[in-house]
Structure formats: structure tokens, C-alpha cells
Write a structure and sequence with these properties.
Elements: H1 2-20, H2 24-45, H3 54-71, H4 74-95, H5 105-122, H6 124-130, H7 134-137, H8 139-159, H9 174-199, H10 205-233, H11 248-268
Length: about 270
């Protein structure tokens, strides 16, 4: 527990500093590294073959996508990366078809998920950062992802009675899930009040509450989704890069779902 706290105390301020202080390029660069590591952890966890540059192709794709969104050509870059990565993966699969252990479609799709979808979704942070009021918008998915987990944990500890509603995470309770969703709405309402008071923004609190409810709900779905993968492959964590926290993907699993959801909400119904 002490190690977990020390790592959080050291890394959390650095992450928030990159989100808020330097130019958006720094955030894109950090996300490139996070996505590359996350893709490696995913491929390793799902036992994708190490040979024939499968990991290299996937990691390189993961690096390029966030930088493409920072450049303002996210859609173009993502389509190009998707085509190149898919072509490279199937080329390898075709070459290995007659070998004893051919590369199956499942391995190709895992590489596409790790090298394309995860980076594309996490790049929503870069898009939010580049918008008007970007320094405040980029914190929306961060609040949802991190504080939903905290709210769900404490609600489960103190109020949890109905556990085992899903075998993917049998220790979590219905009360914990509800508490997590409600905490997202509460914390975003508080965030809205802070923005009104200290940033001088005209903020719609009902819309922020909606952000919190939907963002927290999909945050919990994201957590369960990546837990499902771990269950299927019989692993506890995706890695041990962050002592006490697991791997990079263990920390950013729910953010992979929360960031694109909040970006969609901001684009459709702006709160400020």
C-alpha cells in the first residue's frame, strides 16, 4: 500500500502538470508513450506472438496516432495508420499461414485494438486540450475516470451489500457501481462551481451533472471491459511498470472509455 501511495504522489502531479501547463504537444508526446506501452502490455497479456515485428508495428502505430491529433490531422493520420497497420499485420499473417503456428485473426484484431483504437480514444484528451477553454475541458474525463473509481470504492466498502452482480468483478457491489456514477455527477458539479468562482466561466451545472452521470457510467464499463480481458487470459495486472498499480493499461483502462465519451458530450452539448 505504501508503494502504491508513493507512486501516486509522484506521478499524479506530473500528469496534471502535463495536462495543464505546457503546450498541447507535450500531452500528445506523453500519450504517445502511454499508448505504446499500453499496446505492448495488451499484446503480451493476450499472448500475441512476439516474433515478426507484431509488437513493433503495433507500438509504432500507437505512437503516431496521438501526434496526428495534435497536428490537427487526426482523422487523416488515423486512417493512414489503420491502413498501414492492417496491411502489415495481414502481410505477416499471410507469410506465416503455412507454418506450424500461424497468426490467427484474433491476434491481428488485438493488434488493431492496441495500436489503433486505444490510441485514438485516448487522443480525445489531446483534442479537448486544443479546444477553447482546453485547460479546463481536458480535466473532465480525468475527474470522471479517477474519482468515479474512488467513489465506487468507498460506496462499496461502506454501503456494499449486493455483491457478485457480475463474475468479471465479483467483489464489486451494486451499491459501489451506483455510488461511482453518482460521485461522478457530484464531483463535476463541484468542478463547475470552481470554474464559476475562479475561472470566471459561465457554466451550465445541469449539463455538467449529465457529463458526470454518463462519463462515470462508461468509466465503470471501461474498467469492467479491461477486467474481462484479464479474466479471460488469467492475469491479475497488465504489467508491473507502476509498482502497486500494475501496468500502464491498468491505470488508463477506464480513461480509454471516458475520454471519447466526454469529448462527444462537449461537442454535442457544451457546458461552457
Amino acid at each position: 500500500m505504501l508503494t502504491r501511495i508513493i507512486v501516486a504522489v509522484v506521478l499524479a502531479p506530473f500528469f496534471f502538470w502535463v495536462l495543464l501547463a505546457p503546450p498541447a504537444f507535450c500531452l500528445a508526446l506523453l500519450l504517445s508513450g502511454i499508448c505504446a506501452l499500453a499496446s505492448y502490455e495488451l499484446l503480451k497479456a493476450t499472448r500475441v506472438a512476439h516474433h515478426n515485428l507484431m509488437y513493433v508495428f503495433t507500438a509504432l502505430a500507437a505512437v503516431v496516432v496521438p501526434l496526428g491529433y495534435w497536428s490537427g490531422y487526426g482523422s487523416l493520420v488515423t486512417r493512414a495508420v489503420a491502413l498501414i497497420l492492417m496491411s502489415a499485420l495481414f502481410f505477416v499473417a499471410i507469410l506465416r499461414y503455412d507454418e506450424e503456428k500461424p497468426l490467427g485473426l484474433e491476434q491481428v484484431m488485438v493488434c488493431m485494438f492496441g495500436g489503433l483504437l486505444i490510441p485514438m480514444f485516448l487522443s480525445s484528451l489531446v483534442v479537448l486540450r486544443g479546444m477553447e477553454h482546453g485547460r479546463w475541458l481536458v480535466l473532465l474525463p480525468v475527474i470522471c475516470a479517477f474519482l468515479t473509481d474512488a467513489g465506487a470504492y468507498f460506496a462499496g466498502v461502506f454501503l456494499g451489500r449486493h455483491r457478485g452482480i457480475t463474475r468479471v468483478s465479483p467483489n464489486k457491489s451494486l451499491e459501489g457501481y451506483i455510488g461511482g456514477i453518482l460521485s461522478g455527477a457530484v464531483f463535476l458539479l463541484l468542478y463547475g462551481l470552481v470554474l464559476r468562482r475562479f475561472a470566471g466561466l459561465t457554466v451550465s451545472l445541469p449539463i455538467l451533472a449529465l457529463y458526470g452521470l454518463l462519463g462515470s457510467a462508461i468509466t465503470e464499463l471501461g474498467d469492467l471491459s479491461f477486467s474481462l480481458i484479464k479474466r479471460q487470459y488469467g492475469i491479475k495486472d497488465y504489467g508491473n511498470l507502476l509498482p502497486g498499480h500494475g501496468g500502464m493499461l491498468d491505470r488508463f483502462d477506464s480513461m480509454t472509455f471516458a475520454a471519447p465519451m466526454l469529448l462527444l458530450l462537449v461537442e454535442i452539448i457544451p457546458a461552457f
